[in-house]
Amino acid sequence: TPQKNLVDVFTEEKVTDFIGDKIASHESGGIWIKVQELAEFHFLNVTVVGTQNIKTHNGITFKFIAKNKTYELHSDTKEIKSEPSTVSNQFVTQFSFDITEVDFDIMLTEGNTIEVVSNKQTEIFSIIT
């Protein structure tokens, strides 16, 4: 239907036109971030493109897996729903983290992979160095 095709084109444009920096990759997508400062708070706006269709009211956890340590970030956004993309067989998921009290640079430099955990789903991305 024309409306369905319009949604697919819109989603495809979002997949290929991200604002921010790509910090991790996956065979069918990646993770893009943009740091936003509001007053004295710092937020990490995240876009994940992957194979998981996420729908949750409990938020998402990022697990930064390093050699001897695991760092965790829990999303500030609790209600999250992926947008499907039937053309590319991917899902686009957007949410944010409050990183005001977190040393995010250490997580990125020490970590090798990021596990995106939601409900009982996990998708693994390799951190780009």
Mean pLDDT: 86
Kindly provide the radius of gyration, computed on alpha-carbon positions and rounded to a whole number of angstroms. 15 Å
- The stretches of 5 or more residues where confidence is low (pLDDT under 50) are 1-8
**Total count of helical runs of at least 4 residues:** 2
Shape: globular
Structural class, by secondary structure, is alpha+beta
Helix content: 10-25%
Order of helices and strands: HEEEEEEEEEHEE
Physical arrangement of strands within the biggest beta sheet: 6-5-10-11-1-2-3-9-8
- End-to-end CA span: 43 Å
The description of the largest β-sheet is:
9 strands, antiparallel
Can you count the beta strands? 11
* Content of β-strand: over 45%
What's the structural blueprint in terms of helices and strands?
Layout: H1 2-16, E1 21-26, E2 29-38, E3 41-50, E4 55-56, E5 61-65, E6 70-74, E7 80-81, E8 83-85, E9 90-98, H2 104-110, E10 113-118, E11 121-127
Summarize the structure in short.
The model is unreliable at 1-8 (pLDDT under 50). By secondary structure, the chain is of the alpha+beta class. The longest helix is centred in the first third of the chain and has 15 residues, at 2-16.
Structural write-up:
The protein has 129 residues and is α+β, with helices and mostly antiparallel strands. Helices cover 17% and strands 50% of the residues. Strands 6-5-10-11-1-2-3-9-8 form a nine-stranded antiparallel sheet, with helices on both faces. A hairpin with a 2-residue loop joins β1 (21-26) and β2 (29-38). The termini are far apart. Residues 1-8 have low confidence and may be disordered.
